[in-house]
Structure formats: C-alpha cells, structure tokens
Amino acid sequence: MIAPLVLATQLVVWHSYRADEQRAFEACVQEWNRAHHDVHVEALALPHDGYASKLEAAIPRGNGPDLFVGSHDALGDWARAGVVTPIEGLVPAGSLTQFLDGTVAPLRVGGHLYGLPLAFKTIVLFYRTDLIATPPANTDELMKLARATRAASPGHYALAYEAGDFFYHAAWLHGFGGHILDAHDRPALSSEPSVAALAFVRTMADEELLPSESTSVVATQLFNDGRAAMTIKGPWFLGDIAQGVPFGVAPLPVVSSTGQRAAPLVTVEALLLAARAHDPKAALAFGAWLAGPESARIRATRGRQTVAARAAWDDPEIAADPILAAFRTQLSSTVATANVPAMNQVWEPANEALRKVLRGAAEPRAALGAAERKILEALRPPPPPVRAMPYAFALALAGVGAAIWTLRRGRARLAAVGGPGHGAPWAYLAPAATAMLVLVFVPFVVGAGMSLFWHDAGHWTFIGLRNFTDILSSRDAPITDPLSFYFTLAVTALWTVANVTLHVVIGVTLALLLRDPMLRLRGVYRVLLIVPWAVPNYITALIWKGMFHRQFGAVNGILVALHLTPVAWFSRFWTSFTANVVTNVWLGFPFMMVVTLGALSRIPKELEEAAALDGASRWQRLRYVILPLLRPALLPSVLLGAIWTFNMFNIVFFVSGGEPDGATDILVSQAYRWAFTRGHRYGYAAAYAVIIFIILGVQTMLTQRRTEEAT
Amino acid sequence: MKTLRIAAVHAILVLASAATLYPVLWVVKMALSPSQGFAMSPSPLPTKVTLQNFIDVVSTHDASGWLFGRQLFNSIVVAAAVTVVGVALACSAAYALSRFRFGGRTLTLRAFFLSQMFPGVVTSIPLYVLLDHLALLNRLAGLVLVYATTAIPFCVFMLKGYFDSLPRELEEAVLLDGGTRFDAFWRVALPLSRPALAVTALFCFLTAWNEFILAFTFMTDPRSWTLPVALQRYVGDYSTEWGHFAAGAILVSLPVMALFFALERHLVGGLTQGGVKG
Questions:
Q1: Among A54, A73, B48, B106, which has the highest number of CB atoms less than 10 A from its own CB?
Q2: Mean pLDDT of B184-204
Q3: Which of A438, A520, A538 sits opposite B212 (nearest CB)?
Q4: DSSP at B241
Q5: Cα dist. A575→A559, A560, A578 in Å?
Q6: With contacts defined as CB-CB under 8 Å, which chain B residues touch A639?
Q7: What is the pLDDT of residues A13-26, one digit of tens each?
Q8: Do A425 and B96 touch (CB under 8 A)?
C-alpha cells in the first residue's frame, strides 16, 4: 500500500504537566493526531522550574513552540515582551461563550485576547469525613470547631493550611471585602477589610488554632495522619491524600462578619499562541479543539482537571464527581489574579507582612502599611533615559589607556625574558584562552553592560549608572531593612567567614586525625567522609531543608530525643542562618579535608621527627611545625573556597529561601530575585552582579598582596 | 594512654561519618518508600521497602523509545566529552603558564581567576543568545563547550601548581637530546602528572554531570536532555513526587560516587599543589 504523500503541518506545543494531567494531555494530542492527518501536533513536557524563563528566552528568537500552556497571571508580561500574540480573528467571537464564566476575561491584556482557557486552578476545603460530618459553613462555626478541637486534644487541629502564603490568605482578604489592587491597579493592602482579614488569621495563630509552621508539607501530613480535620488545597492535593483516608470537598466557608464567601485567587490555565508561530491558523484549529468539550472530557476524567469548557460538565461521569463539583461551585466565588505588572511586586512584601503578623512580630495595620510602601517603591517609574555618548567615550578612553599600559609592561617583560620561541606559549594557551574569551568573557561583558540599562518587558533603556546609585544609596529599603544592599552585604560577609572558617577547621582536624598510617579503617573513613562532595548540591539543599523542618524534620527529632525544645529554624534570623551554614559546611568540608591530606603528605617526616627528638610535645609539633607549613599550601584553596561560598546560590535559595523576610539572603540570591521574581529587573540584577565582582576582585587582590608581603 | 587516644580518634571519626551519612540514608529511605510524600521522621531506616520508584524512573518512555536510556546516554556523552575537552585545554594551558615566561602570562592567570567571581545569574541570557548565533543551541556540542569553559579555570590552577612542583631537569634532558618542547610536555610532564590529571578529569566530569539550569535553558527536546533536567520533571508547581525525585537523585549520584571511590587515592595526591599565585 502506498501512503498518500501529504505534507502535514507540524505544530509543537509546550507544557509542564505531570502525572495524570500529563497523561490526559498527551491522550488528547494523540486523539487529535489520529483524526487530523493534515496537522500533526507534538507535545513536549518541560520541567516547571525555569519553564517561564525558557519561554521568554526561546520564543523571541524563534526557537520556541507554536503554542504553549501557561498561567494567565504571567500573561501581562508575556504580552508586553512579545512572547505571545493575539488570537482575535482566528477564533469565531461567538465560540467564547462555551467556556465557564470568568475563565476568558483573565486572558485579555489591553483589550486583546491571547489564548483559550483549558482549566482553572483554585483552592477549596478538603475535610476528613471520619472526623467531621459537615464542614463549617461560616467562619464563626470554623472558630468554634477549631477551639473545641484544640481543647479536646492538643496537637490536633480543625484546620491546617498554608497560612503564611499570601496566595492562600487572599481568600480571606476577599471574603472580608478587601482587594489586592484597586481599580487603578494600585496596591490596596492597607484597607480596613484587608486589616480585618489579617486580624482574623492572627487570632487563629495567637490561640494556636493553626499549626505553628503552616507549610504545605505540614498540612498534608497532619491531614493524612488524622491530626487535622480540614485543609485548604487545590486539585493537585488529590494525589497527596494517603490511601484509605475518607475525605470530602466543599467550598470555603462564608466570612461571618460580611456574609460573603471566602474568595480565593483563581488561575486560568490557557493554551496561548506563541509569537512567531509558524502557522497560526492551524495552531488555533488545534487550540479550539483542545479547549473544546471533547478534549475537556478526556482531561477531566483522566487528568481530574477542573476544565473550562462548560459542555464537559454535562457529561454524566463528570457531573457525578463531587470533588470536581465543589471546585465548580467555588469558581463563582473567586477572584482572578491580576495580570498587570503591579501584581508581580505584591507577592514578596505581602508574604513578608503576613508572616511577620503570624509570628507576632508586627501588628496587622502597620505590617500591611509597610508592605504597601514597598510595593509602591518597587513600582516607581523608570529613571529617565541618559545619553550614552559620554559613557561610550569614557569607556573607549579607558580601554585605550589599559591597552597602552599592558603593551608597555608586556614589552618590558618580553625584553627581560627574551630568547627564541616566545610564540610557543601561545600555541599551548590559545585553545583554552579562545574558549574562555568567547564563552566566558563575552557573556560576562554583555552581562556587565546590562547593568547600565533599565529593562522592562524586553525593552532596554540606557540609564547610565542609575542602577548603581540606587543600589548603593539603598533606594529600595532603609539601610537596616533586610532588603537593603548593606544589610545583605553584611550577611554575605558573615556567611562567607563562617563557612570558610568551619570548612578549614573541620577539614584540617579530620585530615590530621586521618593522617596516622597505623589507624585502622582509615580508608573506610576517608571514603565515607568524602560522600557529600559527590552529591549534587541542589539535592543536598533539598534534603537539608527537610531535615530542618519544624514539625517533621530529623534535626528537631533528635533535639526532642535529647529532651531539648524543638526549634522553628526558619522563623528567626540566627537559626535560619545556622541552618544554611550547617548545610553548606556538610557540603564543603570534604574538599578542605582532601586538600589538607594532600598537603600533609608533602610535609617531610624528618621535620616532625627532629622536633620530637628535641622533646617537643605532640601539641607543640602541631603548633610550631605542621600548621605553619600547612598555611601556604592551603591558602589558594581557601581563597577559591571563599569566592565559591560568597556566590553559593543553591544553598541559600533552597534551604532558607531567604527566610525570615529575606534576611538570610546573600548578594547573589538577591540578584537572582531582582532578575526573576521581582518583575524581571535584569539591569538591576546585573548591577548587583557587577558589584559582587568588584568586591571579590578587590578582596582577592588585597589578600594576595598581603600574603606576598608576608612571605 | 595510647589506647585511650586511639579510642577518642575513632569516636570522633565515627561521629563525623554518621553525620555525613545520615542525610544520605534519608534520601535512600524516601526512594525506597512507596509514597510520593515528603515522609519525615528522625529514623533514616525505611519502614516499607519497594523498588517501584527506581523502576518507574528507569523505565520512563516516550513515543520514540526508552527516554531514560537516551538521557543517560546524553549525560555520559556530555560528561565524557567535557572531561576530554576540559582536560586537554586545561593541561596545555597550565603547561604554558608553568613553563614559559611571556608577556600576558600574569594577565591570563588573573583573568582565569577573575572569571570565578562573576555570578552566573546574569550571564545565562547573553550566553543563550551567543549559542543561538553560533548555531549551538539544542546541541550537545554547545553544552560541552559551555561546561568545559566553566571547569577550565579551576583545572588550570590545579595543573599549573602540579607542573610547578615537578622537577624541570627531566624535561631539559629531553630538550638536550634533541626532543621538542612538545616531546617534553607529552612524554615527561604529562605521565608524571597522572594524579593531578585524574583530579582534573573528575572535576570536569562532575561539573557536566550535575548541572541543571543551563542544560534546561539550552536544550528543548527531552531526547537531548541530560539526567538532572529529567530529574527536575518530578518537581512541580504545587507538589513534588518525592519518591521518584529521591530515586532519581540516587541514580544520578551513584556514578559520581563510584568515580570518587575509584580515584580517592589520586585525589589526595593531585589536589595538593593547586596554586593561584602568578
């Protein structure tokens, strides 16, 4: 049989679904490909971490997909940066009524529609039917139940949820009648209803009606153990409920004082049309089908997705599902996350205020006022553009000066060395030097150059040294605030000194103990002690974050076993900082140990023996013979170790995540936040990077000069 | 007195080893337990044991075949190529910096050292554009070059220090016998530097084997991913499949540990002389 030669249109669609949702999505794509031979679709599942930045890097340069699944809350940025393109004219206007109310509007930016809704994600109340027959209808009933539970059995809770996450808190905020942004997209966090909502949660925390560390993991575990009767979660929680736990799902309770139902944020997951899609018409034909009822039925039944297509909900199997039904009921009491730039700046200050109040470190009104000021400061208009000519001229002048200086010094040295074959070294050096020049120094210069620009959604404006003056004058926060440059610098310095000291002390001690050739099991110890070096450091970070967990972490488990009080590691600066340091010391001491072992093996035995003959004690030999000889051998490794520690992003970012309130952040993790979580301020992040570079460069130069003088 | 001292030494070493292994055992526990939750308890010993997580991770398939195998293959190819390229570039550069005195030598050393100080946060975007222009995006070759340049400076310091510590007389003898400089490098200096070369190779391998962020930014097709990127697929927006993640983490770490144990003896000898002085 000869297949007809059809040149099918090839479409690529990116998504980051996992597990059941991924399988359902891929089943839909297969279904489409079976029925449509003229348009072939390929689905690519990408990791969620880095998904957005990958889209933003790939699409504008034509390396992206034709379509992708994305959340509507990033759509504002994507539309302004030219990552997505409007779809009006490609879909019949009347077809939009097939989607549930409230799922289409969030996909509009500036009057244009950018995609078709696939599903909505919001949170509802999960309750254990073996512990409570009917969930509380309003907050008064909730409080009564919570107090009764606490009185009846300490350590048990009526409700456990991520109270310290503003995404969850927004449900109460809206229920009390508040808004995150006002009608002009200005922050409205310090309004009366918003203060009342925070005071409500604060009361629950004060009366210990909520677990002291309210993270997602705690809530899940307490719910599964039967120590929490209810939790607030999204559809993703279905996969986390332990086998055999009887549960029901209900909409969130009504706020008694206002009579309004608590209204959580809703995120619309949409199929978006990428800018530079090859065949927008074909893409949208597939898109309309994927968002439509046939595919929605597959996604709802196989992927347990809360789909946006109205017709799918009439399917008997879906209509009979009480869990999906609860989500649909909740949908009518939700607020779509705003997709305007201002919203990007809300999360961090709002979370900070929320956690401060829950810890009892601030009053609701004051904390919300401070958060609002921070948001407004972050939203300040960009600095005025500056003429680039004077800068270019100064740069050229400096470049010429540096070149002349280098050449003159170089010539003097060449003359001194002289001799034939002075071209030879470059033959050996050229491959490495070229590779470094192209792949390290060019990106470095470009990256450093970005520090002179203001970045907004893909557009760059030259602003001279303004980023530097803003950082160095601590424009974003008072100097004593954890977000200020000087505070972070002090923390970074402390972090580096603490780590390097401990690395050296532990590494040298263990190496000295392992030096004795007569020691039994020496090889075994050496191999065991080197293990941390072999584990990738993002895995190390995740493990240790778990170990320091307030309720279930092994560290507190050991403290309890020793009859000590467990510590909430990430809620205070010093404990949080300690957790970071412990992790990084675990990860870094083997390197120092191995370097020391090597250096020790090169100290001639005769020196020590001679000292022993002279009657020097063990301690004296160590103090006056071994350590002085070790110092110069270890110095280069210590210097390099200090530089790596100064920029050790993974540990700080994944273990403490900057908690509490960004106080344990170091300079690199601040730079990262400016680049990726605070509205893509790449220029500002680059300025941080340049400052880090200058600090390290000067510090290293001084250290080297001092040691050269000393030797 | 002496037995007491030895007992104390053993006590300290046992304690240190326990502190080192405890978190690792804990990952093993997560990987072996049937749930995908973040099971936490002070005991690092698993209660229920199943190999299902490992089976799931290893048997990952896509339409074109055995995806895990393909990604494992990529990881091996990339790490091996980085090791070869990195060691080759680093040892010739280190040799030049150790044996020749020439204009620009100090500058080159300084530049290599300075390259360690610039945080990667802001260079990933320019690097992406650059690879795009060089037509190296979505190619393992691009990844190999990027990783090799990341590893080069440290390797150069280490090897240069080691070359500095070797006696020059042997090489001079080769030159006097009519051999070229390259003979001296290839036949004398390199064979003598085996421990340092082993460490350099290990470091290059490690850099390539564990990296995730750049690999994901530069490679789009899952069939061209390395294992750490594939591992990251188990971490989601709202929840993480901890059992699968832990099993994957162990599978990723095992080859590195095996290499470490195999090269442990060289490690001590090779790392010592790393010097950054001009």
A1: A54
A2: 89
A3: A538
A4: -
A5: 14, 17, 5
A6: 276
A7: 999 998 889 999 99
A8: yes
Distance from CA of B70 to the nearest CA of A (A): 16
The pLDDT, as a whole number, for residue B276 is 40
Contact B118 A552 (CB under 8 A): no
Q: Report the complex ipTM.
A: 0.88
B121 closest CB neighbour out of A526, A685, A708 = A685
- Give me the residue label for tokens 């199929």: A271
Q: Give me the residue from B40, B220, B228 closest to A549, CB to CB.
A: B40
In this prediction, residue B54 carries a pLDDT of 93
What confidence score (pLDDT) does residue B40 get? Answer: 60
Q: pLDDT confidence of B278, banded at 50, 70, 90?
A: very low
Where helices occur in A92-182 by DSSP H, the ranges are 139-152, 166-175
Residue of B nearest to A54 (CA): B217
Ordered by where they begin, the domains of chain A are 9-120+267-336 (3.40.190.10), 124-263+345-378 (3.40.190.10), 485-504+516-587+633-710 (1.10.3720.10)
How far is the alpha carbon of B142 from chain A, nearest alpha carbon, in Å?
A: 10
Mutate to test the interface with B, among A14, A520, A538, A650 (most CBs of B within 10 A): A538
Range name among A20-24, A300-304, A356-360, A518-522 with the lowest pLDDT average: A518-522
Give the residue from chain B lying closest to A600, CA to CA.
B272
C-alpha gyration radius of chain A: 30
Cross-strand bridge partners of residue A459: A456
* Contact residues, chain A, for B210 at CB < 8 Å: 536-537
Cβ count near A472 (within 10 Å): 13
Cβ atoms of A72 and A340 closer than 8 Å? no
CB atoms within 10 A of CB A594: 27
State phi, psi for A120 to the nearest 5 degrees.
Answer: -120, 145
- Rounded to whole angstroms, the Cα distance separating A330 from A310 reads 15
* Residue A215: both structure tokens together: 């993270």
Facing B268 at nearest CB: one of A49, A553, A601: A601
pLDDT beyond 50 at A304: yes
Q: How many A×B Cβ pairs under 8 Å?
A: 326
Domain boundaries, chain B: 48-270
What does pTM read for this prediction? 0.88
Asked whether residue B272 carries a pLDDT value surpassing 60, the answer given is: no
Contact A339, A84 (CB under 8 A): no
B48-270 classified as CATH 2.140.10.10: no
B40/A221 CB distance under 8 A: yes
Neighbours of A254 (CB within 10 A): 20
| pLDDT given at position A681 | 85
The minimal CB distance from A697 to the residues B21, B114, B122 is found for B114
Confidence of residue A416 (pLDDT cuts 50, 70, 90): very low
Contact A435 B253 (CB under 8 A): no
Query: Crossing angle, helix B194-210 and helix B242-270, to 10 degrees?
Result: 160
Which stretch of DSSP H or E encloses residue A247?
Answer: strand A247-250
Longest dimension (CA), chain B: 70
Decide if A693 and B26 are in contact by the 8 Å CB cutoff: no
